[in-house]
Model the fold of this input.
Amino acid sequence: VQLQASGGGLVQAGGSLRLSCAASGRTSSSYVMGWFRRTPGKEREFVAGITLSRRGGSTSYSDPAKGRFTISGDNSKNTVSLQMNSLKPEDTAVYYCAFRTVGQFIPRASNEYDYWGQGTLVTVSS
Done:
């Protein structure tokens, strides 16, 4: 599975950005896609995740993302998006799209994911 992420950039505090990720290759009928972020000197941090299957899916958010970020996905297109609103300077990070081949629950540990995108930089200025 290959992941291609896009949508990062520079935005002022309070603004919005939308990240997108497309998965290609062999995907199953049920899987998990998620977003993590990393800032210098810190571990990769879970942001949001979604289970994708033909019967729909569930979502999960980190506390900093709740109420501001929305993850959505399309199982038929193998895509996931992260709408980020009310951005804060502390949201500045490299954001990574992740893919887990087993889709029964949404783990928050990065080592539970099997494939990773290349990362896209989000910079929020104050």
